[in-house]
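Example 4.3 (complexes with small molecules)
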Amino acid sequence: MIKVDVQAGNALDTAVDVMLVSVSGGADGWSGPAAEIDAALGGQMKRLAGESEFTGAAGQTFLLQTLGAIAPRRVCLVGAGELESGSELDDKRRRGWANGLRSAVQAGAQSIAVAFDTPAPGEIEMAVEGMLLGNYRFVEHFGALRQRDRDRVDPDVTVIVDAEHVAMVTESVRRATAIADGVYLARDLVSEPASALNPGTMAARATEVAASHGLECTVLGVTELERLGAGALLGVGKGSDVPPCLIHLVYRPDGEISGPPVGLVGKCITFDTGGYSIKTGEGMLTMKGDMAGGAAVLGAMRALKELDVRREVHGIICAAENMISGGAFRPGDVLTAMNGITIEITSTDAEGRLVLADGLVYTARQGVAEMVDLATLTGAAVVALGDTTALFASDDGLAARLLDAAARTGERAWRMPLIADHKDRLKGEIADLKNTGGRPAGAVIAALFLEHFSEGIPWAHLDIAGSARSEKTSGYTPQGATGTGVRTLLSYLSTPPA
Ligand code: BES
Ligand code: MN
Ligand code: ZN
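Answer. The structure with BES bound is encoded below.
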């Protein structure tokens, strides 16, 4: 990832390939560095920008040569929209900064500087976050044909500010970097093929991250899971050569605590074939990413210490590979979850809710006051909301805090109902529950299933099946793994209940 520097200086005298400056669409749109540069260029920049489509609207960019008139060789204007703030506008700005950096990179810039009008911590954090997130690439498996792409070096990026703002800006850059590091980790894990990322290697990654980021980490293997009676997680993992595990990370803040302990639970199916209720070839194509919930939990946990979060946080990752073999679980089998509820398997492809069942009960027993699970759980959530996350919650306060957190980050989420009338659709024939309840309202049914394992603790469920992957590059979201959930969780954990 690009390391962003902060230096005291002036935009006009900084010799770089591209100088990024923001321009708002309001009446005072051209102030600060943009106005200074425009004056130094005899008003030419404003004129040329006006002749092109550039109006200063959020998300727009405009690149201009300076022909030696000032030290920066090119200037890239980034539209900041109207000056007032709002979460939707903020996200457009975040995207604008990502587009600005992308156009500078595409123009071949090796050195890039960024100058702000009146540097405010929120604005800088947002800008740096947008730029870093937008510059993500996963080149690990580029080979002989893509050597040049693989070896491409990132540009140097420096934020230029007045001497008096250096400390404040440095802190904002540090926070944005911590957040982006968490998102990068989640994206890397989702991008990695299932041949390399299985429950065992996921546990190894979590152990490493914990050691370097101030977390405790315990990995519960098959023997411990058997002792705990985690029959649902064990059942799903039975068909794989790699045993399932439950990864338990803990973050305990030094010093003052604000807000009760919270649990984050991630579905981490490192590959979902569907099991004997096998998927189609097409349906299986993106199923190495069926661990995006677990990746989001690990990505968020990685950043807690760097962001100085004031709550105790338990991160639980339910890891298994849903494979087919002589040992695999079958339709018709009955599994017993950790809380004694028995589950008749009507589809081995509804495996996410099974591993989460044990994960939720386990988490509830850690003494948390609320818990949030993240899972690429249902195709029905994709049909209902596309790339918007479906949020379900047993508690209105928790739902509101999560929706606020999501809105602040630009990760779109929409609340869906837990329709109690549908509960009878999950009644088992020979066991307590069955794990599917028909196609209508499939995402709701899955959430109702999970609620049985929330043990009466305020609980929320984020179905990220449609938001974990993006089919195209847009703003700060490159094609492929999005790392969704990491920023929502961090924003939620940074603002404890009133
Ligand atoms: N991992 C899938 C859900 C999924 C689908 C995620 C598409 C991302 C994109 C999940 O395990 C699954 O297979 N769900 C089934 C449930 C059904 C059998 C009740 C589904 O949605 O079809
Ligand atoms: Mn499945
Ligand atoms: Zn799945």
